[in-house]
Amino acid sequence: MDTFEEPDADNAFDSGKVAFLRSWDSSYANAMSSESAIADPAKVGVMPLPASRGQRRAGWSVIGGWDIFVNPRTRNLRADLTFASWMAGIQAQRILATQYSQIPSVTSVRADPAVIRADPVLQAAANAQLVSRPSETPGYQKVTEAIHTHIHAALPGQSSEGHHDPCLELIGAAHAIDPHVHGTLRCARPAASHG
């Protein structure tokens, strides 16, 4: 559904109404919770994003923004800073990883074989190329808008002219992102049916 937000997508997946979910790492923990209709590790798999042509590793994936902020006007600054330091440390990162499927921000925890074995999300993350959310990088907004516009146009019922060809829309997104892309992107046309 093109109007879903994260909780809607998680709920649809957890109730068994959709087969695939592209979401944050915590979605696996949600799917394995007692409230989920699919809470069976044999029924739910986790895979890293595919790599681009020529890449040897799995594709890029974004680490969530688990920032810890402390209000400088707090009455308990020392206690707040102690808690923030603990949350960023190895013990808390191990708990977040093994009990809540959160990708650890501490590299040594993320690379620990015992942590990796504990959860399919962490196994996938071990092979992915992790980056922080790139919203401040040049071109991020342009890329996001191009993908959103063209994917949305390809969905049934979204256009006043009717359903657009998804392949052509993806090529349109590629051209919107990089106008110099030409010649190599083509859509395979199905053979004409004979009646």
3D structure, described in words:
The protein is mainly alpha-helical. Among the domains are: 60-132, no CATH class; 140-177, no CATH class. The protein contains nine helices and two strands; from the N terminus they run H-H-E-H-H-H-H-H-E-H-H. The protein has a two-stranded parallel sheet with strand order 1-2. Helix 8 packs antiparallel against helix 9. The longest helix has 15 residues, at 140-154. The radius of gyration is 21 Å and the shape is globular. The two termini are 34 Å apart.
Short overview:
Among the domains are: 60-132, no CATH class; 140-177, no CATH class.
Number of helices: 9
Q: Roughly how much helix do the residues carry, as a percent range?
A: 40-55%
Rg over alpha carbons = 21 Å
Distance between the termini: 34 Å
Number of DSSP strand runs: 2
| SSE string | HHEHHHHHEHH
Main structural class: mainly alpha
Instruction: Give unreliable regions as ranges.
Output: 191-195
Annotation keywords:
195 residues; two-stranded parallel sheet; 42% helix; disordered C terminus
Can you lay out the helices and strands and say which pair or pack?
Layout: H1 6-14, H2 26-31, E1 60-63, H3 77-87, H4 90-100, H5 107-110, H6 113-117, H7 120-127, E2 129-132, H8 140-154, H9 166-177
Parallel strand pairs: 1-2
Helix pairs in contact: 8-9
